Amino acid sequence: MPPRRPPPPPFYVGAHIPQRKTLAETMEALRAAGGNVLQLFVANPRSGKITSAGRARYIAEAPAVREYCARHGAKLVVHSSYPLNFARNAPARGGPAYWIEAVLEELAIAEALGAFGVVIHAGRWIAARPATAEKGTENMRAAVLEVLSRMNSAPGAPRLILETSSGAGTELFSDLEDLLRFYGSVRAAAAAAGARAGRLGLCVDTAHVHATGASPSRALQMLLATDAVALVHLNNTPVPLGGRADRHLGLLDPKGEIALSELRAVVRLARGAGVPIVMETHGTYAAEIAWARAVRGAARGAGAPASHSA
After folding, report:
1. With contact defined as beta carbons under 8 Å apart, do 265 and 225 qualify?
2. Within a 10 A sphere around the Cβ of 71, how many other Cβ atoms?
3. Which of 2, 132, 261, 296 is 20 to 30 A distant from 269 in Cα terms?
4. What is the torsional sign of CA 51, 55, 60, 65?
């Protein structure tokens, strides 16, 4: 008899949805829609602040959240707040950089909740001095290395997950080759300094990649070779190919510029690699989770050009 094939990895697919009264209730609402991975903010997404009451709430809820995830085979990931810009210069008078301290606090709360990571955006070099992409990249490299050196590196602790750029404004790494070079240099420097280089992961956002002019499935295929892809954000967008703007649409929205065949290819690749998928599509997630679960087929050939057919 031929040897049995190993079972496929579990398929984790979910969404970033509004929080209910408790996180367990939020996860139950997502499970009712067919999802098993929840993305959430633990800080104010617009200010970056975590109140003492908010911190206390998450710590108090952590045992119930961990028990819920264990019972239902669910996962949790945290998205960092939008104002945190890792491309900024360090404070001129010394002292802690608030964006580093903020993400370390998000990582601590994520760890308490049992989340597998905290997603950050690429920095915006307009805040660097001098305001150049080179200086912004240098600043971001130093900030990420500091976070890696200070975060918990124990097995099972959350990873710091860098999301692909949309290329909007002065956002860094609109070219995937630049992202790969940055990732490689940070890993090498972290390893040389004795930090756990593997604690840095990558998130592929389909809307962002499309906005930079690249194919999301080909980008995912390329980045999977690094063994660093920890998450896929599966979103459509009204932005034309190469439009360099960060705007999301529901996967099935007829105004979406990303072909459904391309999004199917991303689902197949992520599912084959055991990478969780999260939709950030604001209200249409139940139908989209069902659509993603209905995608069938092997991942081979996923990088082929896609048409805009359903």
Report:
1. no
2. 8
3. 2
4. positive
Specify the residue for token string 């408790």. 22
In the 8-state DSSP scheme, what is residue 43?
S
β-strand partners of 118:
78, 160
Q: What is the H or E stretch that residue 163 is in?
A: strand 159-163
Sequential DSSP letters for 101-119: HHHHHHHHHHHHHT-SEEE
CATH architecture, domain defined by 13-282: Alpha-Beta Barrel (3.20)
Identify whether the C-beta of residue 124 lies closer than 8 Å to the C-beta of residue 82.
no
Phi and psi at residue 195, to the nearest 5°: -85, 160
Q: 150-170 pLDDT, tens per residue?
A: 998 788 899 999 999 999 999
Burial of 285 (0-12, 13-18, 19+ CB in 10 A): buried
Q: What φ, ψ does residue 126 adopt, rounded to 5°?
A: -60, -25
d(CA 160, CA 179): 15
Per DSSP, the three-state class of 268 is: helix
Q: What is the pTM of this model?
A: 0.92
Q: Is the dihedral of CA 270, 274, 279, 283 positive or negative?
A: positive
Q: What burial letters (b/e) apply to 196-220, b meaning 16+ CB within 10 Å? A: bbebbbbbbbbbbbbbbebbbbbbb
- Domain extents for the chain? 13-282
According to DSSP, the residues that pair with 13 across neighbouring strands are 277
Backbone torsions φ then ψ of 229, nearest 5 degrees: -70, 115
Secondary structure letter of residue 146 according to DSSP: H
Distances (CA, A) of 83 to 87, 114, 179, 213: 11, 24, 20, 25
HSE-CB at 39 with a 13 A cutoff on CA atoms is 27
